[in-house]
Amino acid sequence: MDESLRAQIETYLSHLDGLIRRGRQVRDTLAADPTSKSAIAATRAWQEDCGVTINQLSGGSKAHWLARSFSDAFLMRSEDGQAVEGTPPEVIVNRLLKVLDQAVTSLTRTDDGAIITASSQAPAPHRFDFVHNVELRPVLEQAYSDSRSALEQEQFDIALLTTCGILEAIVTDALEHKGLDTLSDSGIPAGKISDWSFDTRLSVAEKMGLIRGGCARLPAIARSYRDLGESNGDGGLKATVSARDARTAGQVLHVVMRDLDPGR
Asked: Which of 227, 178, 235, 233 is nearest to 201 (CA)?
């Protein structure tokens, strides 16, 4: 097997293992309390991450068997085989876990990882085409990938710091594109946008209608993420970042990305 292909397969297997572990945690949480808002939010974030990975593995083709299996997981079938709405979240999670298991099985077969043959030729994701600063787009793509990897590896501090950095960058880009001349009529702080605090940028962006109220869910530790990155003197961070904090920040990022790019 080609070494680059082997490395790609190992990377996917590691990523799938992380998704499967997260899926089992989500399933157990839903089983304990199916109406929990935090559990439902975590489930949606997990499902979105599964969708991104499945899309990559299937080469972006909705006709690929893996992509079809992913889509079918969200459907409830009646006795006559017709699709109906209302599949319980816990059932969907179990189905998606089976799809992930199928992906692992396919990747570990001896046919040189046929499942990713198409995806290896697929174009790189373009999640940040809405960003006006063209040079910033590839940097954000890499940072987004790094944040997801950190989350999968349970490096919650790195995941949160990276996610908030992305959030601040895309909001700043939107504000700068809007222009200070336009913004100055709204009673906003004086000075350069780059001198404003993270919280101020989010507040002004919301006030200007660039984003909606999704940032209200941003944890307090995320709003002060710049200070968090400073050492406490012992080589560690000033505060502990929980899994919930990191995942909620990621969910808020996705909401803001949709606000700034309505076509998503």
From this structure: 178
The Cα 221–Cα 205 span in angstroms is 20
Identify the bridge partners of residue 83 per DSSP, sorted by sequence position: 77
Could you give the CA distance from residue 159 to residue 20 in angstroms, rounded to a whole number? 19
Please report, for residues 46, 148, 188, 210, 226, the alpha-carbon distance to residue 205 in angstroms, rounded to integers and kept in the order given.
28, 25, 10, 5, 19
- The alpha-helical segments, DSSP class H, found in 58-155 are 65-72, 89-107, 137-152
Residue range 63-112, pLDDT digits in tens: 788 888 898 888 765 444 444 455 688 889 999 999 999 999 888 875 55
CB 150 within 8 A of CB 158: yes
Model-level pTM? 0.58
* 210 CB neighbour count, 10 Å cutoff: 17
- Supply 11's token pair: 């990377």
Angle between helix 243-260 and helix 37-57 axes, rounded to 10 deg: 70
Q: Using one digit for the tens of pLDDT, what is the confidence trace for 113-171?
A: 566 655 554 455 678 999 999 989 989 988 998 888 888 788 999 999 999 999 999 99
